[in-house]
Structure formats: structure tokens, C-alpha cells
User: Which sequence fits this backbone?
């Protein structure tokens, strides 16, 4: 198991954001995380990536306890994430964004050493150029990130997360804010790239057709915990899940899973 | 790639040093103090790129100046090179220590905390008799490796020292800005959360910037003390910090050379305004700042239009789009 959590719980005062989460993910699996707003999906992602410290329970990455470690340490161990609202550097070009990501990922030693390492080292530039090809955004290479279309910005966000060659990647709603007709094209690019880099993926998604098409396994969140964990077809067809998550496209998603 | 700009910078400083003997004495002394102060601005540019504007940089300036003055007064050393090295080091150390607190704050909180720290030093200087109190004290004219210049050579030697320090500092800052730690300034301003999730500590990046900027300000203060041959608590006062921020806005954060040009213009406008209207010279400076912000929002450096990093000019991206 590359990622395992046990009895994970997060409370904010009297509010329980997540509770009793115990799941394990083997390497190279692609997991879809579904659930209504406030069901605890993003809290789950935030705890694994060190953005939130769990109130209870433990998180294990490749046999190592990473509970409560700061996010930058967890990133360096090999768990990366993308964001629901793409977190890129708008003042820089796509290429500069990727150079920055690669330079940070490649650095060894402290900040002072980073002051003696050139940003545009040949390896960094090569990484950035490989990344724009891998994610199909080469024609936006010298465009400032502030001017990118939403879909390209999402891809850049994910490409930056991948710069550190993570073993596990958590995508927080990769298709949110993307026009319905572009969602599949975006996910095709992302999933092909992540497969090529041999990355285990957990993605939060509201669109059940996307989940049905790309996930090998589904975690259904409700009221802060995982109420179902199984293959997409079975999980999405379960009437209880349908009721609790009440996704409008649930039925068609189950059939999409059937075709996939 | 950076060799051309390094050569151009070195040439500019050498040229200035060469023509200095032909310049009228008032320009030489104006340039000396202006270029010394420009080193503070060079440090502020580093911070400004990361979105940070300290209103208390005079703290490090005063630490540098007082280190020179105190060593001179109590130990009797008057060799410029022996004086400026500990001054820069001590301000760097001060920046390192205050940095543990400052690096955790942003925006107005950062600005005000740095202001508060500088005003604490001001208070201490004003109240302490052994540090000269409100009057401060004088500094002897420096020697250079035992050589003491006389007559017309005295101001020139000082200008050359300041030019040498300026050239060296500009080189160091330019190289730093091309490094991973230096180039991440704009990312710090744009998205701290992305940087943290790439696996680097934003606070530590800022801490290093503070130490570099503090060391430069200390070096500047040391050179200023040797130039003015006097130190007083006003060197730590908030209006001194404000002046440095003023020049930074004038210069912009895009191009190191602009720090020196802007600082020179600032001193020039200030002394001319002071000559013409001693009572209301601040109005002239205020008007100059207003004009800068309205017509050159990115400062004088934007006129040079030479990006420090290797990013492509806008025309290239337009081509890519087409």
C-alpha cells in the first residue's frame, strides 16, 4: 500500500469535518473521490498533503508515518497536489512557472544553497520543456499564466505538481470551472500524462461521468466519512449512494462506467 | 548569458570612476552619498519583488553607520576597509535575528513591524549617552590600507570606494536574482501556497532576502558614516526609511542600475529644491513622486526594459499566440 490512513478525524471546535476514515490505496491505482459539498473530500485531501493537521488517526505513505508533517516535507517525500482553484504564478510565463517548479523540486540542501544554484540550469529548462509537451500546452509556453484559458491553467497547475516526480498525486476537482465539452479532453491529457509518469492518483470530482470513465475505484464521502469504497460501476449504481450524494448525472455515469 | 550585463555594469562603474576627477566637487559629494544610499535601495528591490516593503530599513542602515562610528571612536581604527566589513556583518546579523520574526509577516504587518523595530533602535540611540544621544558623534576621515589621501583626492577616494562597493553589490544581487532562491521572489508574491506545496519554505526564502537586504543597508550606512563624517539617531528615524522606499518606487524593481540613477536623482532634486525653497522643499519631492507613480508606475527601471531573468519579451508570446 503506497498510501494508508487509519481512523482519520478532523474537528474544528464542535464541527466534525472528517471522522473514522480508514482506507488504503495500492500503488498505481486511480481513485475517484465523490461526495456532496461539505462531505469531507477536501478535508481528506488537505490532511494527507499536510495542509491540515488531523485531530486523530494516522497517515502512512509507503510504510512511513507522515501524520502532522508540514506540507513542504510531505511534498518532498513524494505526495503532490493540485488545487480546485489553480495555484500558479500569474506574473510568470508557463515556461517560467514550470522552471520554478522544477528548480524547487530538484534543489537539495537549504535555502542558502538555493541562492548558489542557477534557476535556468540545463536540467531545469529540459524539465520545463518536457512538461509543456507532456501536458500538451507547448503553444502557451511563453504566455503569462494570468492570460491563460481556465483549462490550460488547470493543466499548468497539475504539471507543476508533477514537476517533483511525486509517487502520489491528489487532484482537487481537476475539472471544476471547465466547460462541460472540454472536461473529457482535459482528463484524457492529465490521465495519460500521469500514467506515463507512473503516479498513483486520487481525484476529487463532482462529475460522475468523469469518475465513471477514469477511476478504477471510488471513495464515496458522506458526513465526513467514507460510506462506500469499491469499483465505480458498483458504487455509482448503489441506490443508497445515489441518494446520499444525489448527483444529477448519477445514472448516466453508471452506464458510462459500463462502456469504459 | 549574464556576462553581457555584467560587462556593461562594470564598464558603467569604471567610466564613472574615470570621469570623477573631471566633475565639479559638489557632484562628486552628491554622487558619493547617493550611491551609498542606493545600496539600501538595491536591498529593498529584492524585497519589493517578493511584495514586501519595509518601512524600517533605516534600522540596518543605522547599525552599519554606528558600527563604523563606534569602532572609530572607541578603538581608534580609521581604515575604511577594516570599518565597513564589521559594519556590514553586524547589520547582516541584526537582519538575521530580527528576520526570525519579520519573515513571518506580510504586507502592512511586515511594514509596520519593521518600522517598529527601527524606532526601538532610534529610541535607544536618543536615550543613550555613550552612543552620542541626540547629537550623535563625529567620524574621522578614513584611510585606505594605511594610505590617507589629502586635499582633492579625499572626496575622490571615497567616491571610488563607494563605486567599488556598488559594483560588487550589484554583481552579487544580479547573480542572486538569477538563482533559484532569488528568482522565486515573484512566486512568493503570486502564490505562497503553491510554493509551499512545491516543497520550499516561503518564510526561509524571505528570511534570506531580509539578510541580504539588511547587509546591503548596513554597508550603505557604513559608507554614509564615512562620507558625512558624522552619525546621529536620525539615521534610524522612520523618515530615513521612508526616503529609501521613495527612491525604490522611483527606481522600480526591474533593473539594478536604476537604484543608482534614482538615488542620484533623488539627492539632486532634494538639494536643488532645498536651495530654491528651503521651507517647502518636501513639496517638490512629493510632486516628483506623484509624477513617477502616475507616469512610470514600474519606475525608472522600466525604461531600461531589460528583464533580469531570461524571460522572453512580450512580442514572442504574441507570435506564439498567432
Assistant:
Amino acid at each position: 500500500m503506497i498510501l494508508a490512513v487509519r481512523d482519520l478525524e478532523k474537528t474544528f471546535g464542535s464541527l466534525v469535518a472528517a471522522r473514522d476514515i480508514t482506507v488504503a490505496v495500492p500503488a498505481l491505482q486511480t481513485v475517484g473521490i465523490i461526495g456532496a459539498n461539505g462531505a469531507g473530500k477536501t478535508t481528506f485531501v488537505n490532511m494527507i498533503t499536510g495542509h491540515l493537521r488531523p485531530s486523530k488517526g494516522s497517515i502512512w505513505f509507503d510504510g512511513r508515518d507522515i501524520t502532522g508533517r508540514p506540507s513542504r516535507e510531505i511534498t518532498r517525500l513524494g505526495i503532490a497536489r493540485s488545487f480546485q482553484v489553480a495555484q500558479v504564478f500569474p506574473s510568470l510565463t508557463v515556461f517560467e512557472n514550470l522552471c520554478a517548479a522544477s528548480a524547487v523540486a530538484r534543489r537539495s540542501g537549504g535555502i542558502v544553497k538555493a541562492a548558489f544554484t542557477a534557476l535556468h540550469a540545463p536540467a531545469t529548462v529540459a524539465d520545463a520543456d518536457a512538461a509543456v509537451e507532456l501536458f500538451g500546452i507547448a503553444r502557451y509556453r511563453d504566455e503569462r499564466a494570468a492570460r491563460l484559458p481556465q483549462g490550460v491553467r488547470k493543466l499548468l497547475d497539475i504539471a507543476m505538481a508533477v514537476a517533483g516526480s511525486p509517487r502520489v498525486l491528489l487532484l482537487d476537482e481537476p475539472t471544476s470551472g471547465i466547460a462541460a465539452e472540454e472536461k473529457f479532453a482535459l482528463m484524457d491529457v492529465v490521465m495519460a500524462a500521469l500514467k506515463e509518469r507512473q503516479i498513483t492518483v486520487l481525484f476529487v470530482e463532482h462529475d460522475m461521468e468523469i469518475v465513471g470513465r477514469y477511476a478504477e475505484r471510488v471513495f464515496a464521502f458522506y458526513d465526513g466519512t467514507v460510506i462506500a469504497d469499491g469499483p465505480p460501476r458498483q458504487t455509482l449504481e448503489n441506490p443508497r449512494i445515489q441518494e446520499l450524494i444525489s448527483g444529477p448525472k448519477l445514472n448516466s455515469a453508471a452506464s458510462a462506467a459500463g462502456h469504459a | 548569458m549574464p556576462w553581457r550585463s555584467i560587462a556593461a555594469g562594470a564598464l558603467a562603474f569604471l567610466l564613472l570612476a574615470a570621469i570623477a576627477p573631471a566633475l565639479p566637487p559638489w557632484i562628486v559629494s552628491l554622487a558619493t552619498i547617493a550611491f551609498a544610499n542606493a545600496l539600501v535601495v538595491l536591498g529593498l528591490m529584492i524585497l519589493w519583488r517578493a511584495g514586501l516593503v519595509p518601512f524600517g530599513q533605516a534600522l540596518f542602515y543605522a547599525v552599519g553607520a554606528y558600527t563604523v562610528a563606534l569602532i572609530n571612536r572607541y578603538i581608534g581604527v580609521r581604515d575604511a576597509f577594516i570599518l565597513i566589513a564589521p559594519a556590514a556583518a553586524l547589520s547582516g546579523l541584526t537582519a538575521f535575528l530580527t528576520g526570525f520574526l519579520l519573515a513571518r509577516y506580510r504586507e502592512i504587518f511586515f511594514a509596520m513591524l519593521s518600522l517598529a523595530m527601527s524606532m526601538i533602535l532610534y529610541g535607544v540611540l536618543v536615550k543613550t549617552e555613550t552612543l552620542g544621544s541626540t547629537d550623535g558623534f563625529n567620524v574621522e576621515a578614513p584611510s585606505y590600507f594605511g594610505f590617507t589621501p589629502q586635499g582633492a583626492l579625499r572626496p575622490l577616494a571615497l567616491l571610488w570606494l563607494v563605486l567599488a562597493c556598488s559594483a560588487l553589490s550589484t554583481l552579487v544581487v544580479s547573480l542572486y536574482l538569477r538563482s533559484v532562491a532569488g528568482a522565486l521572489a515573484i512566486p512568493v508574491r503570486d502564490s505562497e501556497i503553491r510554493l509551499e506545496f512545491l516543497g520550499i519554505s516561503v518564510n526561509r526564502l524571505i528570511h534570506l532576502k531580509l539578510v541580504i537586504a539588511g547587509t546591503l543597508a548596513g554597508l550603505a550606512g557604513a559608507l554614509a558614516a564615512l562620507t558625512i563624517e558624522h552619525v546621529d539617531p536620525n539615521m534610524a528615524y522612520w523618515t530615513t526609511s521612508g526616503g529609501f522606499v521613495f527612491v525604490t518606487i522611483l527606481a522600480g524593481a526591474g533593473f539594478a542600475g536604476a537604484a543608482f540613477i534614482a538615488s542620484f536623482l533623488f539627492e539632486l532634486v532634494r538639494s536643488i529644491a532645498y536651495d530654491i525653497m528651503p521651507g517647502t522643499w518636501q513639496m517638490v519631492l512629493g510632486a516628483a513622486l506623484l509624477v513617477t507613480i502616475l507616469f512610470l508606475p514600474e519606475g525608472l527601471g522600466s525604461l531600461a526594459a531589460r528583464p533580469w531573468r531570461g524571460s522572453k519579451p512580450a512580442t514572442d508570446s504574441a507570435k506564439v499566440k498567432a
The CA atoms of residues 12 and 215 of chain B lie 24 Å apart. Residues 306-322 of chain B have pLDDT under 50 and may be disordered. Chain B touches chain A at residues 1, 176, 178-184, 186-187, 189-191, 193-201, 204-205, 207-208, 309-312, 316-317, 320-321 (CB under 8 Å). The radius of gyration of chain B is 20 Å.
